Amino acid sequence: MTRFVRPLFAALLLSLLVATASYGHHSWGHYHWASTTSPFTLKTGDNVSSGWDSYLDGAISDWNYSAVLDLRKVAGGTTGTVCKPTSGRIETCNAAYGTNGWLGIAQIWTTSRSHITQAVTKVNDSYFNTATYNKPEWRRLVMCQEIAHDFGLDHQDENFDNPNLGSCMDYTSSPLGPPSNEHPNAHDYEQLQKIYSHLDSSTTVGAAPPASAGVDLNNPSEWGRLVRSQAAGRVQVFERDLQGGGKLVTHVTWADPEHDGQRP
């Protein structure tokens, strides 16, 4: 999207919001990438298989309608199975990580000032290869949502059973709705503008991350302490303290326990 179109699109979004009911904030804590420019470019490593490529492309395209963020897909810096982070960017991965309970996770490494330095999005084929989740609407929703956590957005709503808000940041038991929860909505873009409404004196895009060597990133027992649990435990956040005052923060979407006998 050109720089000329971006401001026009942002203005349209804001005008639409004036005519709707106001929403609460849904930033994820104070986590954000420090940047000296607006919009800023955030590389997104492609470590997904061909079955996920269109969903990754769709999520990147959706979020690039934002006036403050440019996600740029690049060659992956890891593999789907290993999915190690790369300093200063997002890595996106899929693999059969096992029937360990989680459908998708977003993990961010932060400084003591809540600036994100690296991030990963992982989707678990052990569940997405089942009849329950092997559907385009579930793949779109989870990919869209987990990537958004990696740049600081949280959920608009965490009730799985109420009417859809028309946003991938709204938990649901029926992604197709109506309305569909497969893509961002105007309030998501407005929240991104609020998160990145200021410039920083330095950037964490490309910065060296806090050390986390030896941590098994796929193992819930190594994610640290549970700091938030919502929606009857289907939405959880864990924090692990790292050297230098930083943190590893893991946002988990657990599979529906009705379809999962292995969830902790």
Question: What does this molecule look like?
Answer:
The chain has 264 residues and is an alpha/beta fold. The chain has a single domain, classed as Collagenase (Catalytic Domain) (3-Layer(aba) Sandwich). Helices cover 21% and strands 23% of the residues. The protein has five helices and eight strands. It has helices at residues 5-18, 50-63, 125-128, 136-149, 186-195; strands at residues 40-47, 69-75, 90-95, 102-110, 116-124, 225-230, 235-241, 247-254. The protein has an eight-stranded mixed beta sheet. A hairpin with a 5-residue loop joins strand 4 (102-110) and strand 5. Helix 2 packs across helix 4 (136-149). The longest helix has 14 residues, at 5-18. It is globular and about 45 Å long. Mean pLDDT is 86; it is low at 1-23 and 259-264.
Task: Give me the number of helical elements.
Answer: 5
The biggest sheet, with number of strands, parallel, antiparallel or mixed sense and barrel status, is: 8 strands, mixed
Q: How many whole angstroms does the radius of gyration measure? A: 17 Å
For the record, give the distance between the C-alpha atoms at the N and C termini, rounded to a whole number.
43 Å
Number of self-contained structural domains = 1
Which spans have pLDDT < 50 for at least 5 consecutive residues? Answer: 1-23, 259-264
CATH class label:
Alpha Beta
> How big a fraction of the residues is strand?
15-25%
